[in-house]
Amino acid sequence: MGRDRLDRIRSEMDKRLDATLSSVELLVLLLQADLIYLLGPLLWEPDPETGHRERRNPNWVGWLFLPFITKEGSQRKAERFLRDNWDLVEEAGRARFGDDPELLPATDAFTRQNFYYFRRIVQRSDEAKIMDAMRDFAVARAQECGLLNDWDGSLTHPALSRTAHTDGKVIAPISKAVKGDIGRIYETLPGGQKRLVREYQKRYDPTARNYHVGGEDGKAVVYGNKFAHLSVRGEDPNVRVMVDFARVRDNEVGGEAAVTVEMVRHLRSHPLVGDSLQAAVGDKAWRGAHHRLMLQLGVLSVSPMPAAKKARDGNPRVPKRSTIGGSWHRAGQEKGEPVDITLLDGHPHFREVDVDGEIHDRLLERVQSKRKELRRSGSFTWYSVYAVPDDLGGGQVWLRHLSDDDDHKNEKNREENLRVISPYDPDYPAIHGRRQDSESLNDLIEQTNWKNRAHSYGDDRQFLDLFGLAMAMAVTTPEAYRRSQLRRRPAAA
């Protein structure tokens, strides 16, 4: 019966064109993908000579539970769903492993109690190896959907399909209590008076902290556990893969910005990616040091510029202004001459004086951006070429994006003040417009939580819940991409 049902569901999925996927379809995709079977052998194994609890299910079965915590909304519902569809799990196990008893699932469904034991095993395993396997699978699935390819875009005009998006998210804990909060239980006496029966320590999240959020001001304070994530996405609905994610703890230097840069480094160094990653989008948490690190990795970093003065009380926003040195190659001249360039919101401008003596800033159009690999260090340095209007002298201005010794001496932070793709750049609206995608992923994380709160206590367990969401996105994205391609065919015909 199970095999017939598995084939029937798969056949029906092949005919469907709508973008949404049911829980049963997610289960079939998980069982037919390689992810859970790759993760199974990575779990910690106890010493057989020491006493330990015997596992009723092989390691790969436990990984099935995680995606359905987020899909169904709670551990209880995940348990009930797997119990109702356990015949699919059994049949998929027999189809892949034959009659090997050590790799076949138990006849009884996987319960919450089994999951609690499984979760402790995961927490004793090598997280780095597990995350490497997850990244490998996610990158391969993204490339199946045309993302992180090597044929679109250029260093001057990066492609959206080769752009990563980063952001941070604070997940609210189950309980608002903090360490030291006391709960009290009262009983009502016959006269209507209340008498204290006992006091107790309220259960609290041991790793939750207050985090400042809200852009450059950071005035809003949110209590919970903070995570950072990196994703890539296509143009079609639900074609999105969360490639990487990590905890952001308050004692880490650099916080969210440093963690997101490290995730970009991981992706850039992946053997299947490399130069296929052209750009990464972030928020105002990225400062000059972070832009420098990413440019040295060979990745364009795109983020908004903080204002010199924000728009407030009816007063307009005042853009950040600075000055750096460049090389002006006038029309017809090969040798460049030093020139001071005004930067407004990270974009080069020439200053001109009109007939009335008023000073105006003239925007320079970016013609080309290029990088050069430094052989000794293996890092990259970047340059951009800007066209000078003919009425201002013509030619081109060459600007270096990384600070040198003279810039450090003169306290000129090029990475902070000069952006390859600034808010004035024509490519900025399309690339940074995808920033909205990171926010929608934050909304998805909230929607998969329990009443917008975490499913568990502690950032280690919440990390596993996020892992389950990433698993679900990785296996469903190729199916969503396939359906989007099928929806296009009738229109093309």
In terms of topology, how is this protein built?
Elements: H1 2-15, H2 23-32, H3 35-39, H4 59-72, H5 75-84, H6 86-97, H7 112-123, H8 127-144, E1 163-171, E2 182-188, E3 194-201, E4 209-213, E5 220-233, E6 240-248, H9 255-268, E7 279-281, H10 288-297, E8 300-302, E9 321-329, E10 337-344, E11 347-353, E12 359-363, E13 365-373, E14 380-387, E15 396-400, H11 405-409, H12 414-417, H13 428-433, H14 435-447, H15 459-492
Parallel strand pairs: 1-7, 7-8
Antiparallel strand pairs: 1-5, 2-3, 4-5, 5-6, 9-10, 9-15, 10-11, 11-12, 13-14, 14-15
Helix pairs in contact: 1-6, 2-4, 2-6, 4-5, 4-15, 8-15, 9-10
Descriptive keywords:
7-stranded antiparallel sheet; 6-stranded mixed sheet; alpha+beta; single chain; 22% strand; 15 helices; 493 residues
Q: What gap, in angstroms, lies between the N and C termini?
A: 39 Å
Distinct helical segment count: 15
Coarse shape: globular
Largest sheet: 7 strands, antiparallel
Give the strand order, joined by hyphens, for the main sheet: 12-11-10-9-15-14-13
Q: What Rg, in angstroms, do the CA atoms define?
A: 27 Å
Q: What is the residue-mean pLDDT, rounded to a whole number? A: 89
Which residue ranges are poorly predicted, with pLDDT under 50 across at least 5 consecutive positions?
A: none
Q: How many beta-strand elements?
A: 15
How would you sum up this structure in a few lines?
The chain is α+β, with helices and mostly antiparallel strands and 493 residues long.
